[in-house]
Amino acid sequence: MREYLYYPGCSLKGVGGPYEQSLLSAFSKLGVKLTEIADWNCCGATAYMSVDANMAIALAARNLAIAERSDGQDIIAPCSGCYLSLTKAKAMLEQYPELRAKVVGALGQASLRYTGRSNVRHPLEVLMTDIGAKELKKLVTKPLKNLRVVPYYGCAILRPYKAVSDPYAPTVLEEMISLAGATPVDYPYKGRCCGGMLTSGVQTVGLRLAEILLEAAKSAQADVIVTTCPLCHYNLECYQDKLRKSTGKDLGVPVMYFTQMLGLAMGLSEEEVGMNRLLRKPAIAGVTA
Amino acid sequence: MDLARTIKYEEELDQQFAERIASEPGGEGIWDCIQCGTCSAICPVSIYMDKTPRRIIGLIRAGFKDEVLSSISPWICTSCYSCTVDCPAKIKITDIMFVVKRMAMQEKSYRRFVIPDIEEEFVKMVRKNGRLTESKMGIKVARKSGIGNLLSMVPLAWKLMRHDRLKLFHTERMTNIDELRTILEAMETGPRVTLPAKPSVVPTGHHQEVTA
Ligand code: SF4
Ligand code: SF4
Predict the structure, then answer these.
(1) For A214-230, what is the mean pLDDT?
(2) Residues with Cβ within 6 A of ligand 2?
(3) pLDDT tens-digit readout, B94-108
(4) What CA–CA distance (Å, rounded) separates A218 from A252?
(5) How far off is chain B from A164, nearest CA to CA, in Å?
(6) Residues of chain B with CATH 1.10.1060.10
(7) What is the pTM of this model?
(8) CA of A148: how far to CAs of A133, A187, A220, B77, in Å?
(9) How close is the nearest chain A Cα to the Cα of B212, in Å?
(10) What is the third-level CATH fold of B11-107?
(11) What is the ipTM metric for this complex?
């Protein structure tokens, strides 16, 4: 049985709930065991890095050190923000010995050991590499026929530390969409920023970035946007009403997680993958409107 | 009529500024910039910045410390890393934006607006609970950005609650918060981590290519 460590991060326990739900359902359907990292802490996101870089790295490294207590399983980090923080911490501790010495010392005070041996991975890449498109395709019992899907990757799983696919011309999400029986649409902004934290801080800027992505999805006549990150999902899904009011454009497009899409295609129920927790559901056979 | 001088004398510039930035992990590449403007062109928010990323790098190198530390540009940087991966000189521009934010906070020379406040609140919450509670953070953010904004978020918050994605009275926290505090306190004690004037290891990327 395949086993991984699971680093949920704060968002999957909150607004990103449907992501956690569909991820756990899909992995359990695949017979893959996920063990949540014991007493994990926040990865630090971008905010901590803006205030104190050294502490931000130590924060992320604590999770990596706890993971090292296991038998060397890889860590699955579904949130792109967490994926970035954890891979960034690893890269920086590798590159800067001065920083590493300090962080290793600090973790030592809490009887934690950091060697850098844990591998951090995104579930999209795990599914498509370790299990593989061929295996997954065999499990698709309810292909999502005639569904036009935007493959939206966002930033952090494409750059700068550990890309899950070609950073300039990624294809892995398209492959997953196709094996689920749906049609990936041509989308120019696959890796363009969703607005990040600006959607809550400076909305004139943040919402404009979300608007650009939604407008392109509309003109591609997409039925749904598929995302790989809870913040991208939130930014694209949750401001559609606000954007309609401020721009006068209809930017309403359903947004779902790739794990929900895969789960549905593998025959999981709407409830099992948390479709009822989306603000706007895509028109998929078997999914109530 | 009172006229303000718009150009600085050389002695008014801070010659150590660039060195300080270069001594922080991530800042070491600053001298390699060729001012090509690729970063500004690719940046999704440069059209909203008061100084484009290229200009920030140029001003740092020229010693315009006050201008850089009071710029809003680093604060509206979304950390999308597009500039970093496209820079032909392999400068970690995103990391330099982080360095500038930290320095501006330490020297209290940043412009007070919602983003720096959010980042401070975030850190406070993580130090207290070890994790972030999005609902609580959301309320803090909305309050900081004005009552109008707070009210405009109510319908969305309500919707998210009904969809079981937001719990108003729940706090996300880890169990062994003391362990985390021990680690963070150990990070706070002793000297700041700075890079040796010449990096002891050859950084990956550009430098390696030159020496190889
Ligand atoms: S892309 Fe790199 S070299 Fe070009 S201006 Fe920006 S920082 Fe300088
Ligand atoms: S990381 Fe920041 S400065 Fe660089 S392109 Fe993205 S938003 Fe612009």
Answers:
(1) 97
(2) B 42-46, 53, 77-83, 93-94, 97
(3) 999 999 999 999 998
(4) 8
(5) 15
(6) 11-107
(7) 0.93
(8) 19, 11, 9, 32
(9) 17
(10) Fumarate Reductase Iron-sulfur Protein; Chain B, domain 2 (1.10.1060)
(11) 0.94
